[in-house]
Write a structure and sequence with these properties.
This protein is of the alpha/beta class. Helices cover 51% and strands 13% of the residues. The strands form 3 sheets. It has a 3-stranded parallel beta sheet, sandwiched between helices. A two-stranded antiparallel sheet has the order 1-2. Helix 3 runs antiparallel to helix 4. The protein is globular, with a radius of gyration of 20 Å. The two termini are 26 Å apart.
Length: 185
């Protein structure tokens, strides 16, 4: 079966549109010169997070625009009218993408696809008794929507999944869950 990203997108669509709108306002409020450090950090963090999240939710065309925003903010100490215009064009393209497109639908991996780590199949492993058990995968991300998306996408792989949204609990979770693999942010 196909993974319907549109269905996964629906419950979080308003939240992401608001995040893009907030980023747009921050970018449009910038003026030529040197933005204060807090604004720079907030814009960079939000653009970085949106680049990954929107791409994961089936909006791959939004990712390079968000990365471009992040690049401009981090690369230029002072912003001139050309950089300000580039920032505003990039965020407008992201908004247009979200307003006019539906997420791309992705297929789950084929049953023949194998992922190996140190020659051990990650799809399953042998327990001490010789029976096959699911590999344990810990997923850490501070965005609950991404955790939900990854759980949905990885369910067909047969992993035993543990998701964690609070990185402060990482080591405790590592000790108790003892994963075979960790996916970070």
């Amino acid at each position: 079966p196909l993974v319907d990203l549109a269905a996964l997108w629906q419950p979080v669509k308003a939240k992401y549109r608001q995040r893009v709108k907030t980023l747009s306002k921050a970018l449009n409020d910038l003026s030529a010169g040197s933005p204060d450090q807090r604004a720079r950090e907030n814009i960079t963090a939000e653009a970085h997070a949106l680049a990954g999240s929107l791409g994961s939710f089936g909006f791959p065309e939004a990712t390079p625009e968000c990365q471009h925003i992040e690049q401009i903010i981090t690369e230029y100490e002072t912003l001139d009218s050309e950089q300000l215009q580039a920032l505003r064009v990039a965020i407008a393209k992201v908004q247009q993408t979200l307003n006019t497109n539906e997420p791309t639908i992705a297929a789950p991996p084929s049953s023949a696809h194998q992922v190996s780590i140190r020659s051990k199949s990650i799809r399953s492993k042998k327990s001490r008794q010789g029976d096959t058990t699911a590999a344990k995968l810990l997923i850490v991300d501070d965005d609950p929507a991404i955790l939900t998306l990854l759980e949905s996408l990885l369910a067909d792989w047969g992993f035993h999944l543990q998701v964690l949204s609070n990185p402060q609990q990482f080591w405790e979770t590592m000790e108790h869950f003892d994963p075979d693999m960790v996916l970070l942010d």
